[in-house]
Structure formats: structure tokens, C-alpha cells
Write a structure and sequence with these properties.
By secondary structure, the protein is of the alpha+beta class. It contains 21 helices and 19 strands. The strands form four sheets. Strands 2-3-1-9-8-10 form a six-stranded antiparallel beta sheet. It has a six-stranded antiparallel beta sheet with strand order 4-5-6-7-11-12.
Length: about 500
């Protein structure tokens, strides 16, 4: 996790510096600016991303063969070893940046087709040519805008609105040249792949193997590392596997730190406690009250850059627990994000025939780029914490798409059990009450989901809502109206508001 700002055309260094200042939280440990031939590139890093121990490496990182060829990069690469081996790229500081520069020199934009297990937002330039790109799921955020014949790009919306109101979300699965021309290089599939011809036991074994590989390729415990633990199946699986890897590296007595949050003795707190005892983690709990949630809401919305109620509610919990983990010395947090999208865990999917599951799964994945992925990126980043989500893996997604739909949501009696095969794959490693726990959003399990809508129903009037909806039809509730007001204070009501993705329900 890091931050980038670039400008092409007739850039004003003062404006670029102002943009860069607005995302200093994304990388306070190392930064640099490069300027050449009408292009300015600025990059910052957290310590966990290589912000220390970098030797004499310039930032933005340069090619070993061409000092003027630079890359601004925010991402995580699951298949680095496979791609680096034939290129003879060695491990070390900024290894992903060095690999990407090498691939770009060899293949140009064709290299993007090889990044099928990488989440990224990047910009590459030598002062002449220019390439900006974003991964197909849009897990890493990127925005762009125009001012005085100059193209500006940045990791966060707040940077772009510092120089122009003409702001747009950079579309996922696209790349852009210095003239702002967009080209699509990847898209979500239109049809499911051929269904796997394997029995359930073989599929479960492969799921376990892929997730373990994904974890080990993305985290090495080089810096203080912990795991979020909500007590749901996704975070419990990741905490369990990470705890085992932690002991393998540091000895049988080593205990991975895990973190959970609740409003009082919530369901999340109770279930996370049970998992922590089961996997013998060094468990930490943060118990908050409703007043603390209300206090941090404006700050959460500023960093989140959204007014969607479902997203804001869950983001509050993420914000508070990552802040707490950072205070405990944690620099990297593992997360179970992505499990619902990969294994069809959202309960609303049960409302559709099983034959529609692939289409609805693509719909879920399509919400990531301007909704759910914001929580993953922003709420940890603003607190100086790098987040790693092993379930967001190209290899895992491709495999899961070929699993028969009836194993992802299995009918038992009159019920359809979401993520059935994923639960089965790990049921021997976790408490049964957690493995088969009904799906809850983070805000529901932590206890904040019901409190916030009820509160704003009382503090805002029907007349205020009706007046707002007449001007801004996207506002769907009093709760959303409050969040919208905070959002527009920082980002305005025009194109910036249009970048916000709204979940299908409140």
C-alpha cells in the first residue's frame, strides 16, 4: 500500500505538491518526486512497503538500465516469483517495481496481460512515453482529472479535487496514455469456464492449497504482522493459516496477534474470542460505544471518499480496529476480505435461481472497484497499516469460477448455505459454530449496523430528506443524507459525487 500522484502536459509543481500532501498518510516513511519533459511523478511508501532499508534506490523507482524510466506503483503481486524467475529479477527492496519496469521494457502494454494475480494501480514514464493502468477488479484505487491542458492522476479523490472539479474514476482493467486515451486490456468473463470435473474432496484440497500459496506469497512477517479476526469464516481461515505459518517461522511457542472489535459484547467479539482460543493467537479486543462511532464518522468519510451507508458502517469498524492495531505496533494486517465475492457469500444471492449464480457473482465483483475495495484500502492506509487479503487472488478466483454453482451455495433442506465448499474445506481447523455461522456484514457482527440508521432517522427530518432527494436523487435515506453532506463538504457535489459506488441495498 502506497500513494502516487502524476501529471502530464504542462504540470504545475506547486499543484502536484499540494496533491501529494493530501495523501501523505499513504506513505509517510519514504517519498520522492521525479520531473522530466512535462511529466511529474510523485510516490510515497509505508515502511512495510519498503520505506526503510532501501539503500540508494531512487523514488519513484527507476529501471536498472534506464535511470529516467520510473514507476509509481501501488499494489501487491501474488505471482512475483513465477514472473521474476525467467527475467532474473532478484528479491530485495522494491522487487515488484523492478519486475514491472523490466516487463514494460520488454513487452510494453502487453505486460498487463501477465498481471493476472496482481492488484495494482501504476504509472510508468521516462518523460516521453507514459502508461497508467489499474487492475481488472479495481482493488487498487485510481482517479484522474484535467486542468489547463494537463492530465492529473492520483491514488485518492482528495488529491484530484485539490486542482480540478473535472474528476473521474480510472476504470478498472484499462490503461491510459499521456493524452488521456483509455484502452481496455482486461474484463470480467461473460460466461463461466468449463465446470471442474473433480470430486468435492479434491476441490477442497485444491482450495486449501491455493489459499496457503496466496498467503505465503503475500506476507513474510518481516515487519510486525497481525490478523483481523471478526469471528466469521473468512477472517478465521486467514488467521488460522497465518498463525500456523507464523509458528513455522518463529517456533511453536510463537503466537500471531489477532484483533477484533465490537460495540459491547457483540457477536463478532464472542466468536472471534472462540477462534482465538482455538488457534492459540495473541488476541486483542477493542470494545467501543456508540459515541465513539459517531465521533469518528466525519474522519472515516473523508478518508473513505464514499457516502454509501453499508460501506460507511463497515468502514467505521475497520478504521477503529486498524488504528488500534497500529497503536499496538502492527504494520501489516491480514484480512479475510474477498471471500464473499470469490465463493458467493452474500445472502442476497439466495434470492436468485442457482442457474444465475455466475451472473450475480460477476455483479458482486463489479461492485469492488468503487465500493467494497475502498474499505480494504483506505481504512488501513490512513492509519499507517498495510493490509493483505489472501482471498483476493487471481488463482483462487479463476479456480472458484469453475466450481459447480451448487457447491458454492448448496441447498440443504429449505436453506441454501452460502460458501458451502469453502466452509467444508476448513471445517476441521475451526470451531463448528464459526464454520457454519450465518453470513453477517462486518457492521452487523460488530454491532453498529442497526444503531446508525436508527440514530439518523431521529436526528434528520422527513422534510430534509425530501428536499435533498429532489436535488440529489442518489440519496436514499436519512443516514445516507448525513454521509452525503460530510462527503460534499470535502469533495463537492458534481463529478466527485458520481465516482461513488452504491451497494444494492441500504
Amino acid at each position: 500500500m502506497s500513494g502516487l500522484v502524476t501529471a502530464c502536459g504542462k504540470p504545475d509543481i506547486g499543484k502536484v505538491n499540494a496533491m501529494f500532501q493530501r495523501i501523505k498518510h499513504r506513505g509517510p516513511d519514504a517519498s520522492g518526486v521525479f520531473e522530466r519533459n512535462g511529466i511529474i511523478m510523485a510516490q510515497n511508501y509505508l515502511e512495510a512497503d519498503g520505506g526503510t532499508g532501501r539503500g540508494d534506490v531512487k523514488i519513484p523507482v527507476s529501471s536498472s538500465r534506464n535511470e529516467n524510466l520510473r514507476i509509481c506503483y501501488d499494489g501487491q503481486m501474488g505471482n512475483w516469483a513465477d514472473l521474476a524467475r525467467p527475467c532474473e529479477i532478484s528479491d530485495g527492496p522494491f522487487r515488484e517495481e523492478q519486475l514491472l519496469l523490466h516487463l514494460y521494457e520488454q513487452q510494453g502494454t502487453d505486460m498487463l496481460h501477465r498481471l493476472n494475480d496482481t492488484i495494482f494501480a501504476l504509472a510508468i514514464s521516462d518523460g516521453d512515453g507514459f502508461l497508467a493502468a489499474r487492475d481488472v477488479l479495481g482493488i487498487k484505487t485510481l482517479f484522474y482529472g484535467w486542468k489547463d491542458q494537463t492530465l492529473y492522476l492520483a491514488s485518492e479523490l482528495k488529491s484530484i479535487v485539490a486542482v480540478t472539479d473535472e474528476v473521474y474514476e480510472f476504470p478498472p482493467g484499462h490503461y491510459m496514455d499521456r493524452r488521456g486515451r483509455l484502452t481496455q486490456f482486461a474484463r470480467l468473463p461473460d460466461a463461466p469456464p468449463e465446470v471442474l470435473d473433480a470430486d468435492v474432496d479434491d476441490m477442497m484440497e485444491e482450495i486449501r492449497a491455493i489459499i496457503r500459496r496466496s498467503l505465503l506469497s503475500r506476507v513474510d512477517f518481516r515487519v510486525p504482522t497481525g490478523s483481523l479476526l471478526s469471528g466469521g469464516i473468512d477472517s478465521s481461515v486467514i488467521a488460522c493459516l497465518a498463525g500456523k505459518a507464523y509458528r513455522e517461522k518463529f517456533g511453536n511457542d510463537a503466537r500471531l496477534k489477532t484483533f477484533s472489535l465490537g460495540v459491547g459484547e457483540s457477536d463478532d467479539i464472542k466468536n472471534a474470542r472462540a477462534v482465538a482460543d482455538h488457534i492459540n493467537s495473541d488476541h486483542h479486543e477493542l470494545i467501543v460505544d456508540f459515541g465513539q462511532i459517531l465521533t469518528v464518522l466525519p474522519e472515516v468519510i473523508y478518508y473513505l471518499e464514499s457516502y454509501d451507508p453499508s460501506l460507511v458502517r463497515s468502514a467505521v469498524s475497520n478504521f477503529l480496529i486498524s488504528q488500534y492495531a497500529y497503536q499496538q505496533g502492527i504494520q501489516v494486517l491480514l484480512s479475510g476480505e474477498g471471500g464473499d465475492e470469490v465463493f458467493c457469500g452474500y445472502t442476497y444471492l439466495k434470492d436468485f435461481p442457482i442457474e444465475e449464480l455466475f451472473v450475480r457473482q460477476m455483479e458482486c465483483l463489479g461492485f469492488l472497484h468503487n465500493n467494497a475495495s475502498l474499505r480494504l484500502d483506505r481504512m488501513n492506509q490512513c492509519n499507517g497499516v498495510r493490509v493483505v487479503a489472501p482471498l483476493i487472488s487471481g488463482e483462487l478466483l479463476n479456480y472458484s469460477l469453475a466450481i459447480p454453482a451448487e457447491y458454492k451455495q448448496k441447498t440443504q433442506g429449505e436453506q441454501r448455505i452460502e460458501k458451502w465448499i469453502f466452509r467444508r474445506a476448513f471445517e476441521s481447523l475451526l470451531p463448528q459454530k464459526v464454520v457454519w455461522r450465518f453470513k453477517q456484514e462486518f457492521s452487523q457482527g460488530s454491532g453498529s449496523a442497526d444503531l446508525l440508521p436508527a440514530y439518523f432517522e431521529d436526528v434528520l427530518t422527513d422534510e430534509e430528506l425530501a428536499e435533498a432527494q429532489a436535488a440529489y436523487p442518489m440519496v436514499r435515506s436519512k443516514e445516507e443524507l448525513y454521509y452525503f453532506r460530510v462527503f460534499t463538504e470535502h469533495f463537492g457535489t458534481d463529478r466527485a459525487a458520481e465516482t461513488v459506488g452504491q451497494w444494492i441495498s441500504l
